[in-house]
Write a structure and sequence with these properties.
The structure is a single chain. The protein has twelve helices and 14 strands. It is of the alpha/beta class. It folds into two domains: about 130 residues, Enolase-like, N-terminal domain (Enolase-like, domain 1), CATH 3.30.390; about 220 residues, Enolase-like C-terminal domain (TIM Barrel, Alpha-Beta Barrel), CATH 3.20.20.120. A hairpin with a 6-residue loop joins strand 1 and strand 2.
């Protein structure tokens, strides 16, 4: 089996409500999605998606994905998509770094491999749990009142896990945390996501001021060096996601005890092939995990669910899915959908969902 054609589509995915990153720093209203269709000489077609969370959140942007695929396409054409390690090496040789541009090709290859094997990707990776995974709502609000409103909107959809954005103002952050904890329901999981929005002193002040609440923080500071520098000065559990990009990052976090939780964002780390190695480092060191699409459609959500299903139930806190934040659906209702705040892995082979090509515009590039 060989890859014979790579077709690239660009789609705008409007958000249902405007979204602010921590501290109201950045506002998003639409996501720039790239969909990739890989065709083979055996007639099997796989799909992948790369949707960064805007252009300014981290070093990843929609046009960069499409430029990266243009650079890598000739190195990938002719390879067997089932041999995901060979495809990975070809991409890494063709374009060092730029992991987010490689993720959709990696996803499409896993999709093909699963279809050929007649198995869901999670099962092909070694065994997929059918325990539904909680979906973590992303609460990007600017005020205490708006935070309550958005959280209730997700509760009404069945969500029991929430990622609440904070950061940028110590006093305001302490007030927001205390307010959220005051109406937190007994079965809810809440992660306070700073999105790198604190300096070291700001992080310490908030963490110490809320210490008795025993809450968990994600990415409290800009770098791993910053997080490591204050790690011994507070008792709060820490999750790292934006500074978890490479396998070397994962190794350092585990070795130095920088964090107790990995937030694995598949598009950021380069796709399932590279993310699976991070998962194994976490499992070997007793580190729990959140698994997240960086953003995007039900295709990206499905990919996150497949990796999450390969993690033992008690070490996978939640998945983050973007589908309920969008006003458009490129898959016509198919794929894993919110069921009482959870995603359930199906027995469909491969990724388990493909876009409706009638809902996509004309391709922006075709490589063959």
């Amino acid at each position: 089996m060989k890859i014979t054609c790579i077709t690239v589509y660009q789609v705008d995915l409007p958000l249902e409500h405007p979204y602010w990153l921590s501290g109201g720093r950045l506002k998003f209203e639409c996501l720039d999605a790239t969909f990739v269709k890989i065709e083979t000489d055996a007639g099997v077609t796989g799909w992948g998606e790369g949707t960064p969370w805007g252009h300014t959140y981290v070093p990843a942007h929609g046009p960069g994905i499409r430029a990266g695929i243009e650079t890598m396409a000739s190195f990938v054409l002719g390879l067997d998509p089932r041999k995901v390690l060979e495809v990975e090496r070809a991409m890494d040789l063709a374009l060092p770094g730029h992991l987010y541009a490689k993720s959709p090709i990696d996803m499409a290859c896993w999709d093909i491999a699963g279809q050929v094997a007649g198995m869901p990707i999670a099962d092909l990776m070694g065994g997929g749990s059918r325990t539904p995974r909680p979906i973590a709502a992303s609460i990007g609000a600017k005020t205490v009142e708006a935070t309550r409103e958005v959280m209730q909107r997700y509760r009404d959809r069945g969500y029991v896990a929430h990622s609440v954005k904070i950061g940028g103002d110590v006093e305001r952050d302490v007030v927001r945390i205390r307010d959220v904890e005051s109406f937190r329901q007994p079965d809810e999981l809440i992660l306070y996501d700073v999105n790198r929005g604190w300096t070291r002193q700001q992080a310490l002040r908030v963490m110490r001021a809320t210490e008795e609440l025993r809450v968990m923080f994600e990415q409290p500071c800009e770098t791993l060096d910053d997080i490591a520098a204050i790690r011994s000065l507070h008792s709060a559990p820490v999750s790292v996601d934006e500074s978890l990009v490479t396998l070397q990052d994962a190794s350092r976090i585990a070795r130095e005890g920088i964090a107790e939780v990995f937030g694995i964002k598949l598009n950021r780390v380069g796709g399932l092939t590279k993310a699976a190695r991070m998962r194994d480092i976490a499992l070997a060191h007793g580190i729990d995990m959140f698994v997240m699409a960086t953003g995007g459609s039900v295709l990206a959500d499905a990919e996150a669910l497949h990796l999450a299903a390969t993690i033992p139930d008690d070490q996978c806190h939640a998945v983050w899915a973007c589908q309920d934040m969008l006003t458009s659906d490129i898959a016509g209702g198919r794929g894993p959908r919110n069921e009482a705040g959870h995603l359930r892995l199906s027995d469909a082979p491969g990724l388990g969902v493909h876009p409706d090509e009638n809902l996509l515009a004309d391709p922006v590039a075709v490589y063959s």
